[in-house]
Design goal:
With 178 residues, this protein is α+β, with helices and mostly antiparallel strands. It has a domain of 84 residues: SH3 type barrels, CATH 2.30.30. It is built from seven helices and six strands. Strands 1, 2, 3, 4, 5 and 6 form a six-stranded antiparallel β-sheet that branches. Strand 3 and strand 4 form a beta hairpin.
């Protein structure tokens, strides 16, 4: 865009209003009394973004997450074993964070598509018969779980204390072979 002052419209504006363009705003005592000058803080409030709907941005983010569907990931045997070991450490009332797959039942597809949801809350019920974990009002089937964490939940090696034992054992065996 070219310089406005040097454009045809800019020159016409300067020609018409040149005598008042550089003047200060006229102020009398009466006008200042009726319309006092606004503080900088109040002026800033005028130009701040307006959000009439509280929580609308959060709902948009949730809707975006809902519409971004992904295929369900198949866990390896090692991941299933580690997840099982972590589930055995969960007790009722423990605050945990779980990440699970929620299938989009409105649009069933093969393979299953949906969203991965992270949920934090108290473990209300662990049902080994029906293979479900209840966190608050939400019941999550074991086969949809991807990750379980919380204070007091450890990796199985740390839980059993075997990790350091095997590291030391393999180091000792390696030294003997040399």
């Amino acid at each position: 865009m070219e310089n406005y002052k040097n454009s045809k419209i800019g020159r016409e504006t300067v020609q018409k209003y040149g005598d008042i363009l550089e003047m200060e705003r006229p102020q009398t005592e009466e006008s200042l009394r009726k319309h006092p000058r606004m503080t900088l803080q109040n002026r800033a409030k005028i130009f701040s973004p307006f959000s009439p709907l509280r929580g609308y941005d959060e709902q948009l983010a949730a809707e975006k997450q809902r519409t971004e569907r992904v295929a369900k990931r198949i866990l390896t045997e090692e991941e299933i074993s580690a997840l099982s070991d972590r589930l055995m450490q969960v007790t009722k009332g423990m605050t945990i964070t779980v990440r699970y797959f929620k299938e989009d039942t409105a649009h069933p597809e093969v393979p299953a598509v949906g969203n991965y949801i992270t949920l934090t809350g108290k473990a209300d019920r662990i049902d080994p018969v029906f293979r479900t974990l209840q966190v608050g009002d939400i019941v999550v089937p074991f086969e949809d779980l991807v990750e379980v964490s919380g204070e007091g939940i450890m990796d199985i090696d740390a839980y059993l204390g075997t990790g350091l034992f095997y590291q030391q054992l393999f180091r000792d065996v390696g030294e003997r072979q040399e």
